[in-house]
């Protein structure tokens, strides 16, 4: 059930008997030369399409912008930055809380939002609420270990995993001719980048967030090569995530919030 599609008396009736809301959060940002800027928003939206057939839980409108300052140099990327992302999300969650929500499922499409969601989780607990982050691209690695790939870093950005998920939405959204190879740069001769936000030194990854243009010139940072993406894999990941979240919600609703 979509918040945008119901009337205020229907919202009032929902919050009389329910206190759980799904809040989708994305980003508008570079995903390599082959993927659309809306990747991190359209994948959660696709998961929601499946999820809403499996649960009556209220779904808030998707927030299409997030915290992505490190990618902001790439044309078309729009970042709200950490402070504004926090403030916008706080107002959304707090607004829902004032109407009766206490349990929040944030369906997130973008890793740069995670630190903001951690902070929101604690601040919402202060208000008697509970927040669960559904970071789909990480969850699926645990749901099906084969989907984890061979990269030493998890998740990735613009690699096969996200490319497959976008193919499941519409294969024509991918510019296949623009799929290039991974070109990770080095900070210095001794300090090559390892993933999007770390350098590797003597076998150890040292977190070091830099502008992504320092890390790669084409904007994709793994994990797996996008040429391995298939529409079928994308559909499997989207369906598995939706199934999982539907089951999680049932357990989440039973948590005693006092
Ligand atoms: Zn992404």
Can you tell me about this structure?
This protein is an alpha/beta fold and 258 residues long. It contains eight helices and eight strands; from the N terminus they run αβαβαβαβααββββαα. It has a domain at 7-149 and 234-253: Rossmann fold (3-Layer(aba) Sandwich). It is 38% helix and 13% strand. The mean pLDDT is 94. The protein binds zinc ion. Zinc ion is lined by residues 31, 39-40, 110, 157, 162.
List the main descriptive attributes of the protein structure presented here.
single chain; 258 residues; alpha/beta; Rossmann fold; four-stranded parallel beta sheet; binds zinc ion
Kindly summarize this structure in a few lines.
This protein has 258 residues and is an alpha/beta fold.
């Amino acid at each position: 059930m979509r918040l945008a599609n119901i009337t205020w008396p229907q919202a009032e009736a929902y919050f009389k008997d329910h206190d759980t809301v799904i809040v989708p959060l994305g980003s508008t940002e570079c995903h390599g030369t082959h993927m659309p800027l809306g990747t991190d928003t359209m994948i959660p939206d696709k998961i929601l399409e499946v999820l809403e057939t499996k649960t009556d839980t209220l779904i808030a409108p998707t927030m299409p912008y997030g915290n992505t300052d490190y990618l902001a140099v790439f044309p078309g990327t729009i970042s709200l930055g950490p402070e504004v992302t926090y403030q916008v999300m706080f107002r959304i969650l707090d607004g829902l809380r004032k109407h009766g929500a206490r349990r929040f499922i944030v369906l997130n499409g973008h890793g740069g939002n995670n630190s903001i969601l951690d902070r929101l989780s604690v601040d919402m607990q202060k208000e008697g609420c509970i927040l669960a982050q559904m970071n789909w691209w990480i969850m699926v690695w645990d749901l099906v270990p084969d989907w984890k790939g061979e990269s030493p870093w998890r998740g990735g950005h613009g690699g096969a995993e996200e490319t497959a998920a976008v193919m499941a939405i519409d294969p024509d959204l991918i510019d296949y001719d623009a799929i290039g190879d991974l070109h990770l740069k080095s900070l210095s001769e001794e300090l090559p980048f390892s993933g999007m936000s770390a350098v590797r030194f003597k076998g150890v990854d040292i977190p070091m967030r830099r502008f992504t243009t320092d890390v790669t010139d084409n904007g994709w940072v793994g994990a797996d090569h996008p040429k391995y993406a298939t529409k079928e894999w994308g559909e499997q990941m989207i369906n598995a995530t939706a199934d999982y979240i539907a089951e999680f919600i049932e357990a989440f609703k039973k948590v005693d919030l006092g």
